[in-house]
Amino acid sequence: FLSICPIKKSQLQLLGTACLLVASKLREPRPVSAETLVFYTDNSITLQDLWRWEVLVLAKLKWEISAVTPQDFLCHILSRIPLDLHSCECHMVRRHAQTFIALCARDYKFSMYTPSMISAASVAAALHGLAWTSKNNVPLPELLDRLQRILSIEMDYLQSCLTQIEELVTATMSGNSRAPSEPSADRTVSVDQTEKLMEQGQHSKVGTPTDVRDIHF
């Protein structure tokens, strides 16, 4: 939207609220109401403004708002891997992969990869970090080959994306902005590292409409 419609700095909150309203309607079974979002802005915007900007966002995007994200591929990928989808192991793999996907969303370097590529690399990092590959006697190259065949993606890009995810996790844990590039086999994301990242995300998470939407004011 911002690439085709310049706005004032003072309108950013209104735009963000309108985008949140649209996203909630698109993704949530119980969307956040416009009135609740206005309340979250401390009534700094009006309902009429919010509705007008909702229409403006949709018009500028030509109603093409159902963007595919890496999260959309997770269940499809996990269902094609020999994992019990209702097991604790699968739940842990999904949680770790979701953590990696969230980290990728914060780094511009991953904008060059497709959503399916990021999802596949995140699953590979999660499975390898949880020692699924060694427990099931599936070498990492074989796992990557399986993911490549499932999604019909290029192996070179998949390996590169996996390496960058492992480097990003290491850099995030160490607090450095950059991490040295090493072979991915030597940079396996450990379970402890991922658990710490998930804990940090929980502690630093600010209350959002999704968290408190059931509270009646």
UniProtKB/TrEMBL annotation:
Positions of the Cyclin C-terminal domain: 68-197
Keyword Glycoprotein annotated: no
Pfam families registered for this protein in UniProt: Cyclin_C, Cyclin_N
Residue ranges of the region described as Disordered: 197-217
Identification of the protein by name: Cyclin C-terminal domain-containing protein
Record InterPro entries: Cyclin (IPR039361), Cyclin-like_sf (IPR036915), Cyclin_C-dom (IPR004367), Cyclin_N (IPR006671)
Highest taxon listed in the record's lineage: Eukaryota
Gene3D superfamilies: Cyclin-like
Keyword tags: Cyclin
Organism of this sequence: Homalodisca liturata
